[in-house]
């Protein structure tokens, strides 16, 4: 039996920036439903929806106040049901983003904890602790939050006295759940079943290496590591061994639903761990089906780096019996065109060529792939948003624009020559929640579909070939000998992918006309910053 998720291509929909159906400048579920034919034409197998749950939006929905409803900004449960029904008719699977590491300060259980006494069952659902120092005015330990500042906030007790502290590894508005409390796991069982009963095909799990903290909450040898790297690297707060029991249980819940109707449900984790070998532990056959492999995303643009991370993934992750889950971007990362060396938003420089080549490489690799919305249009990062429109809590917490994520979340351009570029159903004066630059006109969807040389057609053609050729999707690869600066491998019974990481043209590693190339590719030549696919008998 073919297991759909093993070689699926999933499109990440950042709901508030995809398409607005109401004219308020914020994308919504009805907008996603309206965009499904576009995604069907692109050729993806499924969509991953960013959080749309009721939330005060301190971190754009990753601070969840109610895990079993829809925020009115995005619609309601009836609209969600219409969206899933429409997706099913088109053969598009729907994954939800679930946030089990932390919730919102407005979650009813956290509000109960604030109103309760120290040592109460309500506080045991979170990490409350007495402060250090004579008056308890120092945090319980020295950990820092990933988004800046201490990882602890002190509360005022119901009687008005300065009180205990609570742990938040991201922002003070996002208290961490205590997964050592059995009530936490039981509550998330209820959440999973609520959405599975509504027909979803699976979940993308936020901070999947998190959940458990060291039981003694000791000081860290490097307390600012998470904030400095903006990654989950504090070994006392992340990647604790008990987390694997949670994923075994969630896998069993999914298998229970699959046994009922034969539809495989998918669990894909956001797993940030130091090595591919540790990553592989999360995708053992009784845990998560997939976990995003971020090493390809973070690899510098050179053939040695790409070959190293691909080889490690194929050895350690595919060696578990799972398949690698490749990504080049998401809602937390600088857009690929800019990250690969784009010096200007108007399209000059090497960024676009490298981004096209990387996309073709990713789609040729064995396993699954995830595409962040707008990458198929070649959108660059919006790097010049004014300070007064930035909404990322990293900026609000640190005052620094370094690695602020708003630039990749600017609403998509669909049509026209001026903002809102068809994003909102309101008038042309309607203002998207983040301003779109004038140059977005060059990247609008209607223009991309009409231009066969566009990023969109490269992605669409790659996805069509991936679906049609048995050499793509699952399987293995074999590296080919090439000259320095060129990476080439063969798949299955003869599909070859080659990437020229240099800026100079080189002889093609495979003779003949390419089946698909990321740029102009004459017979016998592989131009600089280009990838190409060939069918060849090797």
Characterization of the model:
This protein is α/β, with parallel strands linked by helices and 538 residues long. It has helices at residues 29-42, 77-89, 108-115, 182-197, 225-229, 243-261, 276-280, 295-298, 303-316, 336-339, 351-364, 393-398, 445-450, 455-468, and strands spanning 9-13, 46-49, 93-98, 128-129, 152-156, 162-167, 202-205, 266-269, 290-293, 325-327, 368-372, 477-479, 486-491, 495-500, 506-507, 516-517, 525-526, 530-535. The strands form four sheets. Strands 1-2-3-7-8-9-10-11 form an eight-stranded parallel β-barrel. Strand 2 (46-49), helix 2 and strand 3 form a beta-alpha-beta unit. The longest helix has 19 residues, at 243-261. The two termini are 29 Å apart.
Largest sheet: 8 strands, parallel, barrel
Give the beta-strand count.
Answer: 18
Uncertain stretches of 5 or more adjacent residues: none
Strand order of the largest sheet: 1-2-3-7-8-9-10-11
Mean pLDDT: 93
The first-to-last residue Cα distance is 29 Å
User: What gross morphology would you assign?
Assistant: globular
Question: What is the count of DSSP helices, taking H or I runs of 4+ residues?
Answer: 14
Structural class: alpha/beta
**If you compute it from the alpha carbons, what radius of gyration comes out, rounded to the nearest whole angstrom?**
23 Å
What share of the residues lie within helices?
25-40%
What portion of the residues fall into strands of 2 or more residues?
A: 5-15%
